[in-house]
Amino acid sequence: MQLIQQNPDIHAYLASDGAIDHWHPRVQDTADALWSATGDAYSYAKVAFEFVRDTIPHSADSGAPGVTWRASDVLATRNGICHAKSHALVALLRAQGIPAGLCYQRLTEDDGTDPLLHGLVALRLPGADRWSRVDPRGNRPGVDARFDLDEERLAFPVRPELGEVDHPGVYAAPHPATLRALRESADRRELWGRLPKDL
């Protein structure tokens, strides 16, 4: 799929905001520690992806009721849904000067019901001529997301026959409705009712 950069200014994909707070000391310290173990952009991006995928459980898998949305809080609590984990990975990538943005999929249950907007990440390494998507959601039985910039290895390949959709946009900031749901929900149960069904 051809990804579409929604903001023509690449610097927008390096910016900090309320959710992607990569100037926060916790994000900076984590990014510096990961960088010191790698030393180049590709290796760092892979290690950062695996760090978020593997050391921060998806709260639906862990059963944690709390809701996080700010990257620094995701790193502090080691908890978050796909959108929050994507904010954390984008912040870690931007902290080391790697342009990164947010992407979305419309997913459903196996019978095509209960659509929900799933969040993932796109990055563009120095010298690359295109964006690549990765999904830091977290693996579990039946989910095997990998860091692969040539052939996507996402958590959930879409099933068009069920109405699922890969949205091609790469966004510099979180989807407003998703961010509002994350910020205003008291717990994960309330969050599931607030999250948008699609873009």
List keywords for this structure.
C8orf32 fold, 13% strand, two-stranded parallel sheet, 4-stranded antiparallel β-sheet, alpha+beta, 199 residues, 6 strands
Explained architecture:
With 199 residues, this protein is of the alpha+beta class. It has a single domain (4-194), classed as C8orf32 fold (Roll), CATH 3.10.620.30. Helix content is 34%, strand content 13%. It is built from seven helices and six strands, in the order βαααααβββββαα. The chain has helices spanning 25-36, 41-55, 59-62, 71-77, 82-95, 176-184, 188-194; strands spanning 4-5, 100-107, 116-123, 132-134, 165-166, 169-170. The strands form two sheets. Strands 4-3-2-5 form a four-stranded antiparallel beta sheet, covered by helices on one side. A two-stranded parallel ribbon has the order 1-6. α4 crosses α5. The longest helix is centred in the first third of the chain and has 15 residues, at 41-55.
Taken in chain order, the helices and strands follow as EHHHHHEEEEEHH
The whole-angstrom Rg is 15 Å
Q: Which strand order spans the largest sheet, edge to edge or round the barrel?
A: 4-3-2-5
Number of domains: 1
**CATH 2nd-level architecture:** Roll
Overall mean pLDDT score? 96
Give the total of beta strands: 6
Please bin the fraction of helical residues: 25-40%
Question: Which CATH class?
Answer: Alpha Beta
Strand fraction:
5-15%
- The CATH topology corresponds to C8orf32 fold
